[in-house]
Amino acid sequence: MSFQHVKVIYPTAPARPYTPMRGSLSNVWFDRYKISNDCPEHIENIDSMCQDLTSLIDDEVKNGIRKNRILLGGFSMGGGMAMHLAYRYHKDVAGVFALSSFLNKNSAVYQELKKNETELPELFQCHGTADELVLHSWGEETNKTLKSLGVTTTFLSFSNLYHELNKEELEKLQAWLLKKLPDQPTD
After folding, report:
1. Does residue 163 carry a catalytic annotation?
2. Which of 118, 128, 129, 165 is the most exposed place for a label (fewest CB within 10 A)?
3. Domains contained in the chain, number
4. What is the reported pTM?
5. Active-site residue identified among 90, 101, 131, 136
C-alpha cells in the first residue's frame, strides 16, 4: 500500500523468545502465554512495545504530522498491538485497523476504556471465517466488546479466508484509509 499523500511506516516486531513456540526467537510484538483469548495478557511486554512505538508516533508529530492524521494498524499481533497503542495511549489518532486480530477477554484495553470519557478512534476490523490460528469468533468478540465501550467499529468477515490477507480485504482497507485520511490541498 502506497499513497501520494500518506506516508506509510511498516515497523518490524523485534525478535524475542515466544512462549507459544517453546521459547524460540520470533519477530513478535509481545509474548503470549498461549494463543488464546482466555488467558492473561503479557502486559509488561505490551507496555514496553507501546513505549517504543510511541517514539515513532512522536517523531512523526515532531515532523509536522498531526495526530488526527495518523492511523495505527496491523495484521494479527500487529493489530492487537495497534489497539493497545491507540485505545490506551493515543486516543487522538485518526483510526485503528486490525486484520485477523483479537484482544484477550480481560484485556487492559477494555479496562482503560471502561473509565474513558473522550472520543475514541474508529476501528476497522477484518477477519477470515476459516482462520484456525486466530479464531474468527475472537475477532468478533473483540469488536463487540470495543463497540460496547464506545468505539465506532466496522467488522468485515471474509468467507474461506485463513490467517492471511486477500485482495478484497486490502481493497476495503484502502477505501477506509482514504476515507479517514483524504488528500488535503497543500497550503
Report:
1. yes
2. 118
3. 1
4. 0.93
5. 131
